[in-house]
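Input structure tokens:
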């Protein structure tokens, strides 16, 4: 029963979304409602891809500007509107990396701006661990990055991610599993470099 109820809610949400898109096509002022509905999700996705708040804000603005300009050509084919936004975001981030020469910028000051109540040592340690993990994720192929971000940042199911990326649910499940294994192996290699065995024991 719970699955059926969720399906009905999703159907209602899709119908509401389709109506809102139609209104926005007729009158640009309604695009603001689409913006408010999705801006936080797109920003979060871009932030995890770039690691910098200012860049994420700038690129998020570019995503919605491009979406607004091209909205008249958008066709609602049953996929969530967010799928289209994520594809735009993916392309814009890819272009940004090319322009930056793949230089990744992460500001410690920016990461700790909202952590004034925490002990400095705890903030630094947490930030270092988060950056280490994000560094591992950013070394993954683009599609694997997207799967992780859509699952953890957005909480999407394998089926929903498959819709967004144009892959089957089974393919997403398999790729997600292989991605987690790759991350675990990368983490173990990093740990091995930091704590090499067989040194300092006279062996």
């Amino acid at each position: 029963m719970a699955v059926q109820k969720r399906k009905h809610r999703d159907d209602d949400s899709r119908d509401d979304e389709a109506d809102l898109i139609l209104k926005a096509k007729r009158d640009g002022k309604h695009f603001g409602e689409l913006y408010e509905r999705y801006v936080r999700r797109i920003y979060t996705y871009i932030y995890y891809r770039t690691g910098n708040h200012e860049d994420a804000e700038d690129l998020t603005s570019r995503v919605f500007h491009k979406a607004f300009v091209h909205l008249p050509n958008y066709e609602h084919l049953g996929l969530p509107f967010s799928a289209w936004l994520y594809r735009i975001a993916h392309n814009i981030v890819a272009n940004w990396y090319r322009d930056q020469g793949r230089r990744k910028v992460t500001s410690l000051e920016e990461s700790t701006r909202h952590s004034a109540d925490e002990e400095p040592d705890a903030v630094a340690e947490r930030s270092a661990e988060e950056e280490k993990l994000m560094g591992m994720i950013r070394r993954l192929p683009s599609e694997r990055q997207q799967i992780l971000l859509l699952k953890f940042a957005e909480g999407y199911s394998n089926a929903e991610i498959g819709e967004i990326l144009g892959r089957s649910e089974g393919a997403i499940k398999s790729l997600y599993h292989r991605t987690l294994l790759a991350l675990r192996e990368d983490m173990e290699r990093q740990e091995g470099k930091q704590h090499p065995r067989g040194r300092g024991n006279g062996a």
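DSSP finds nine helices and no strands in the chain. Residues 12-102 form a domain with the Rna Polymerase Sigma Factor; Chain: A fold (CATH 1.10.1740.10).
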